[in-house]
Amino acid sequence: MKRWKYYNSFKYYRAVIKEDEYAFWKEQRDREAQNLYKDRSTRICEDEYEESDEEEEEEAVRANSSRHEESDSENGEDSDQENQENDLGGNRDDHQEDEPDADQDDEVALTDLPNAIVISTVPIPQIPRSLKVVETLVSEVPRSCQEALRAQQHGSLALPRRCPGIPTRKFSSADNETHGSRLDDWPIQVVLENPTNPDNWFVFFEGWASPDNCEEDELRGEALEVGKMRRNFLNVIEAAEDDSIKELVKQQRNIRDAPKFFLDYLDLSYFHSEIHQEYGLGTIIYISLFDTRPPQLKYTTVNVMEAEIYHHLRRAYPNKLFDELVRINRRRRIRHDLTITGGCENEGSCVCNKLFTILYGITGAQNLQTLPNGLIDLKDFNREIQRVAIECSDRCKCSLNCPRRRLQQPMSFPVIVFYEGDKGFGLRAGRRARPGEFLGTYTGIMKKDNEEDNQSYVAGLGIVSKNLVIDALNVGNVFRFAAHCCDPSAVFVEVHSRRNESDLLVPMIAVMAIKNIEFGDEITISYYLKDVLENIPDDQETIDCLCKSPLCFGKLPA
Ligand SMILES: C[S@@+](CC[C@H](N)C(=O)[O-])C[C@H]1O[C@@H](n2cnc3c(N)ncnc32)[C@H](O)[C@@H]1O
């Protein structure tokens, strides 16, 4: 992705929200607040798996398809040895089979979670509490997934997996006698529709390789909701596509006919969703109708940086306290437009728009304003102009529930990472999104720009931090899957947001809907400005754009 360039316009706007929009938004927020929970440990995954050949993979998937098949234990033993050699991750050794730590059951407030990770082998003096320092990025199955960890330690079925942070071993029928007695206590990992009986579901328990059957009224909680979301999404795909796709959807619904990496996709969905839940973020479902390899993503909910970047951000001008900035700028007579109100619940003491004027007014960027319902005001929005959203900090004296702290609050927007054919994986909405709604943030490695690097997953910061980019090639979150569309449904927004002024200001890129996005619709962004797409030089290497929009420009710079 290339960075935005050439912005020259600057607009302010206000709007009145409608009652029904407010009710919708409030309901969302209440639901999201309830979703916040528990200590989950994995954020970053380190890939330690070696290649294994296709045959072994097929073998393992076949073995996996039924816990009750005799062949399970044999396959398990074979690949078990290999897995022990390959599994260099810390989980198996670190984890006891005993009950979870008492600590792990304690609720962790969103405010206690880090807003960025710094990689450093030496201690960093006076580092703010809002940052987590690690020596290396490690791969772990979330600590909250105790049964998955137990299976990782004792399961007899080894899986030749390459997805970072996903267990490489499960329980199979061979483990029934020793590990199968706690059925009633097991957490449900996923429920899948039974295509022959709508009231019946296939249930995969966490840590186990094959499903049991359950009637719908026996199931409670979130797993059933996620199962229904998956079913509804397949209905959308089936209704929209041609006959060959319909056939693939049918296979996807029938566990025994499902594509080769089906179980890997189920695991990615579950463990990445678990990581999300710790941060109050939404469910993720990964689906491919084809035999495509699952993405090798090291999952992170927050940006990651080397110590050098941390020091750079600490010294950066926008990191200064508001009062200091005012002192520095007193002589410059910066005028602040008092008509802009900005959505803070404490309008009188909110400094966000003053901050914008001091820090970014000169850039010509749009200063996005929040409506009282938490949506961004899109009146007069122009996606060809770079924009920034300033969120409140403790300096504004508002509460953590202030609408202008949207990215500091739970954001449980659910998404489906769906294999879109020649475009690769893309992103679909797991519920309706409103124009002006933040869907999440684009995370990855924050680093200095280097034109030599693969630019496919690089998003540039041009306002809050001019020289930095976020690279999600190997480390990132679901928003790195968003495809390009010449008439996109969402945009990137640079965000200046920190809970407290004492926190480091870590620039962020948020993804914001600019249209109504319905359940199952693709979430797309335009990787390029219109001007760039209209004027691609003849000698520039290009690829065909597959966005299918009536406004498509046809080609994308390669
Ligand atoms: C940021 S990645 C998107 C995720 C990627 N599809 C994947 O599977 O990981 C960008 C890459 O996706 C593909 N892509 C995205 N949008 C496209 C489009 N409209 N037409 C063609 N290829 C597209 C291109 O290969 C591009 O380099």
TrEMBL record:
GO molecular function terms attached to this record: metal ion binding; methyltransferase activity
Region (Disordered): 29-105
UniProt xrefs under SMART domains: SET
Cellular compartment(s): Chromosome
Subcellular location, principal: nucleus
Pfam families: SET (PF00856)
Keyword terms, alphabetized: Chromosome, Metal-binding, Methyltransferase, S-adenosyl-L-methionine, Transferase, Zinc
Gene Ontology terms describing biological process: methylation
Comp. bias (Basic and acidic residues): 29-46
Record bears the keyword S-adenosyl-L-methionine: yes
GO CC, one annotated term: chromosome
Composition skew (Acidic residues), residue ranges: 47-59, 71-85, 96-105
Coiled coil: none
Protein name per its UniProtKB record: SET domain-containing protein
